[in-house]
Amino acid sequence: MQEKISNIKALAINDINLAKDLKELFDVKVKYLGKNGSVTELMKGMKDIPKEDRPQFGKIVNDLRVEIENEFNAREVVLKEEERLKTFEKEAIDITLPGKSNEIGSLHPITLVKNELINAFLGLGFEIFEGPEIEEDYYNFKMLNIPEDHPARDMQDTFYFNPNILLRTQTSAGQVRVMLDKKPPIKVLSPGKVYRSDDDASHSPMFHQMEGLVVDKGITLCDLKGTLDEFVKIIFGKDTKTRLRPSYFPFTEPSVEVDVSCSECHGKGCKLCKGTGWIEILGAGIVNKKVLEGCGIDPEVYSGYAFGMGIERIAILKYKIPDIRLFFENDVRFLKQFK
Ligand code: DAH
């Protein structure tokens, strides 16, 4: 009997140590300690043992059971740890893989330049006024000294809804609204979309302008030049020079065209400035007395200056963009460059 017990014990310990995982270990447990397991079978043999030997027999078999159980528990601890490590390995995150970043959008280059222009002027004490894009002929033309049949209307091919309502062709329309609404001193900046029936590499049917208007006592062309000088240095760099050339706009008298020294050749003459050393950036002038009068401002007491620039034009010069249409095709490869 002793030999049988030793045999079972040796076999059980061998099986336990061969078990490769918890599942196999559990099968081994059933094989020896289960309902029909070898140890349980031994116990069942009790009935064939003489009565007086039974207590001793019971103790021996029980000791065997405890020993096998201890072996089993020890092996279980080892296998559990092995499985835990295997899971770690399987579920490990490779931190060397490149991450998936969330792409964040960015401001459109026109918005960027618009904000830059606004910031430059806010620093010079201007307030913002935004007029309507669907505008009346009255504000867009008539009150700006551009009556019907005036040749200046041909300069701006207009989208009309009816003879009185149109898409504004210039942010100058906002000047009239401001002057009718406010008494001087006036110092406003008016950015926004404008529309003209025009479409090529340097014209878009919708584009952006930035208008400026200052009305107060004793305003002269010198104030205009000083302000624009300052502004140009902020936007194009402090070595940039400004030049005023005589021009014509019905709502300003005198009118000027404002040029900046070419950032590419610094005045020597190149392709960008068409050999002149200068680049035109905006129209401006002293507000025409007729416009002031029309808005109920006494031109004997007050005077003003105004200017208007194309935001796309400034962006094109600043970033050397070859075609205005790039701004509106919204190709992400183009837009991404302005982050
Ligand atoms: N409104 C003009 C245009 O669209 C630009 C302009 C010129 C605005 C002279 C002004 C100005 O305020 O004084 O071409």
Tell me what you see in this structure.
It contains twelve helices and nine strands. Helix 1 (2-18) packs antiparallel against helix 2 (22-33) and helix 5 crosses helix 10 (311-319). The protein has two domains: 2-90; 109-338, BirA Bifunctional Protein, domain 2 (2-Layer Sandwich). A hairpin with a 2-residue loop joins strand 6 and strand 7. It is an alpha+beta fold and 339 residues long. The protein has helices spanning 2-18, 22-33, 38-44, 54-91, 109-122, 137-140, 173-181, 221-236, 289-294, 311-319, 326-329, 332-335; strands spanning 127-128, 134-136, 165-167, 186-195, 206-216, 242-249, 252-261, 278-287, 303-310. The protein is rod-shaped. The model has no long low-confidence stretch (mean pLDDT 91). It has a seven-stranded mixed beta sheet, with helices on both faces. The longest helix has 38 residues, at 54-91. The chain binds 3,4-dihydroxyphenylalanine. 3,4-dihydroxyphenylalanine binds at residues 170, 172, 211, 249, 252, 283-285, 306-308. Residues 170, 172, 211, 249, 252, 283-285, 306-308 line the site of 3,4-dihydroxyphenylalanine (DAH).
